[in-house]
Amino acid sequence: MDPKLSPDDAVLIFGDIQDNISKFPLTNPREEILRSARLLAKLAELFDIPTIAMTIPRRDGTSANVVPEITQTRSKFTHIERSRPDSFQVPEIRTAIENTGRKAMIICGIATEIVVQWLALSGRARGYQVYLVVDACGGLGERSEQAAFSRMQAAGVVMTSVVSLAGEFSGDFRGGKGRDVINIVYERMGIATSEEPSGL
Questions:
Q1: Is cis: bond before 111, omega within 30 of 0?
Q2: CA 72 to chain CA mean position, Å
Q3: What is the pTM assigned to this prediction?
Q4: pLDDT per residue over 91-132, tens digit each?
Q5: Domain residue limits at 91
Q6: d(CA 116, CA 98)
Q7: pLDDT for the residue numbered 20
Q8: Does any domain span residue 175?
């Protein structure tokens, strides 16, 4: 059995990476979260991975916007407003995930301790493989985020990163989609594609 995750098996879910929340003080710098989210959206665009972007209402009750790093990169995504900590308790979200027919969830978001943790734990309880992209997450505090990571790992959640996922998806990186994926890795590393490092 191939241990690698196939993009054909996956659904990508962004949890509350929205205009107001992404400005909060977090364990991961805002710029890192947004850059990682954009590169995840690039991977989803390249492999046409079903994508769901969740948001929660602002404190005044108005709807929030998904950040442009996602909306301007992924041409097809489903935006759903959630109203509970556990997204699987929101019928529209649960149905949207089920309707993809995918058995693996790639997840990330803000905050790690709330939307990400409950999405991961409920997904595992329902038999999904869950891959948590740590560099596209932000926690409210170092200790509370670490507790959430530990609980998710104990439930069988796989910790990964944008670069790790890209490596899983790349295949032959001498051309085609594989080459496009490796360019995403270079971008994550801050290397211009014209610089051609000696190896990965």
A1: yes
A2: 16
A3: 0.91
A4: 999 999 999 999 999 999 999 999 999 999 999 999 999 999
A5: 9-157
A6: 18
A7: 86
A8: no
